[in-house]
């Protein structure tokens, strides 16, 4: 991800990997009541016009309704002009002939502003027809900054969590200790909620993906504040590292057991399996240590995380 597109990249990754997280947001904005497990069809985002190609941030189909959400990192009120063009292109593709009349169905659209905290809830443009009639185009404006941490968690607006850190980007967290502790306290509560909502429900992949996106935006926003960046990584990344360690150990044990079964054919099944388990465990631990070192963890932190001695971890580090 480049710095210029990191927000768009995270937004689109959320829709690609976890489209179900967009459902509570759609319910919040448009007053619908879709269940979390409703089918979401991702329509293509490229729309060709005579002027060229238009690429929208999202184009979703839920039941018989189209939804279009654009992600905007700055509070640009002129965005509504581009929204008309986007929506017109989408509606052209859904145009139907009904009772001898062509009808264009505009999508339900909104602009998600990552920065700013304005009071305007609707952006609009008046379109004056040749006969003098006026049609008003309206699009809701949703500001991430309007939502507190508690509101996001209570309403399950987890789609907004990667962008929550942006309210801290103008604060000097490395200097203001109280503000840093406030931020870390909020993220401890966020991480605890995500464990309950995802891990305890067996949604480990979604948990990993969401945490990774939260950290990506956090690392960018806090790129010049080392203490705050490290604090956020420790709070949000610890559980992910534990899960990754468990996965690597299990993979190593599985491979070791397979080797043991092969060895068992020649040196005794029980002896081969026992040796395979031992080798697999050692391989899994070694891979876990390597992964944690790569993520910047110290030998002491790894020993504590994996319940090993410092000497054992240091021995693996030397071999690596």
Q: In DSSP terms, counting alpha (H) and pi (I) runs of 4 or more, how many helices?
A: 10
Helix content: 40-55%
Question: What oligomeric state do these chains adopt?
Answer: single chain
The major beta sheet can be summarized as:
6 strands, mixed
Number of strands: 10
Read across the widest sheet, the strand sequence of neighbours is: 1-4-5-8-10-9
Low-confidence stretches: 47-51
What is the element string, with H for helices and E for strands?
Answer: HHEEEEEHEEEEEHHHHHHH
Instruction: Note the beta-strand portion.
Output: 15-25%
Roughly how many Å apart are the termini? 29 Å
Shape: elongated
Average pLDDT number: 82
Structural class: alpha+beta
C-alpha-based Rg, rounded: 25 Å
Explain the layout of strands and helices.
Elements: H1 6-17, H2 22-30, E1 41-42, E2 46-49, E3 52-55, E4 60-62, E5 65-72, H3 79-93, E6 96-98, E7 101-103, E8 108-113, E9 122-128, E10 134-143, H4 149-154, H5 177-197, H6 204-221, H7 226-267, H8 269-294, H9 299-306, H10 310-319
Parallel strand pairs: 5-8, 8-10
Antiparallel strand pairs: 1-4, 2-3, 4-5, 6-7, 9-10
Helix pairs in contact: 1-6, 5-7, 6-7, 7-8, 9-10
If you had to describe this structure to a student in words, what would you say it looks like?
The protein has helices at 6-17, 22-30, 79-93, 149-154, 177-197, 204-221, 226-267, 269-294, 299-306, 310-319, and strands at 41-42, 46-49, 52-55, 60-62, 65-72, 96-98, 101-103, 108-113, 122-128, 134-143. With 320 residues, it is α+β, with helices and mostly antiparallel strands. Among the domains are: 39-146, no CATH class; 241-319, no CATH class. Strands 1-4-5-8-10-9 form a 6-stranded mixed beta sheet, with helices on both faces. A two-stranded antiparallel ribbon has the order 2-3. Helix 5 packs parallel to helix 7, helix 6 runs antiparallel to helix 7 and helix 9 crosses helix 10. Mean pLDDT is 82; it is low at 47-51.
């Amino acid at each position: 991800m480049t710095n210029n597109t990191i927000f768009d990249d995270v937004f689109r990754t959320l829709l690609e990997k976890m489209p179900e997280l967009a459902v509570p947001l759609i319910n919040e904005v448009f007053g619908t009541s879709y269940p979390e497990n409703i089918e979401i069809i991702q329509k293509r985002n490229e729309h060709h016009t005579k002027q060229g190609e238009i690429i929208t941030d999202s184009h979703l189909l839920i039941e018989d309704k189209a939804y279009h959400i654009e992600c905007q990192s700055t509070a640009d009120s002129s965005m509504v002009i581009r929204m008309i063009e986007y929506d017109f292109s989408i509606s052209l593709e859904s145009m139907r002939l009904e009772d001898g009349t062509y009808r264009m169905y505009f999508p339900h659209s909104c602009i998600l502003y990552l920065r700013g905290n304005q009071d305007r809830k609707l952006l609009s443009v008046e379109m004056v027809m040749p006969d003098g009639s006026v049609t008003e185009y309206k699009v809701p404006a949703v500001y991430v900054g309007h939502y507190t941490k508690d509101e996001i968690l209570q309403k399950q607006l987890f789609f907004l969590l990667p962008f929550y850190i942006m309210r801290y980007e103008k604060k000097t967290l490395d200097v203001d200790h109280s503000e840093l502790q406030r931020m870390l306290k909020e993220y401890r509560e966020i991480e605890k909620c995500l464990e309950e909502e995802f891990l305890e429900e067996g949604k480990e992949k979604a948990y990993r993906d969401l945490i990774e996106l939260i950290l990506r935006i956090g690392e960018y926003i806090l790129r010049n504040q080392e203490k705050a960046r490290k604090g956020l990584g420790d709070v949000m990344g610890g559980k992910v590292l534990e899960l990754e360690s468990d996965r690597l150990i299990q993979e190593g044990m599985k491979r070791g057991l397979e080797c043991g079964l092969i060895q068992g054919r020649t040196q005794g099944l029980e002896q081969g399996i026992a040796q395979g388990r031992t080798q697999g465990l050692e391989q899994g631990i070694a891979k876990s240590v390597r992964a944690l070192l790569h993520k910047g963890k110290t030998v002491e932190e790894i020993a504590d995380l994996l319940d090993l001695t410092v000497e054992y971890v240091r021995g693996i580090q030397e071999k690596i």
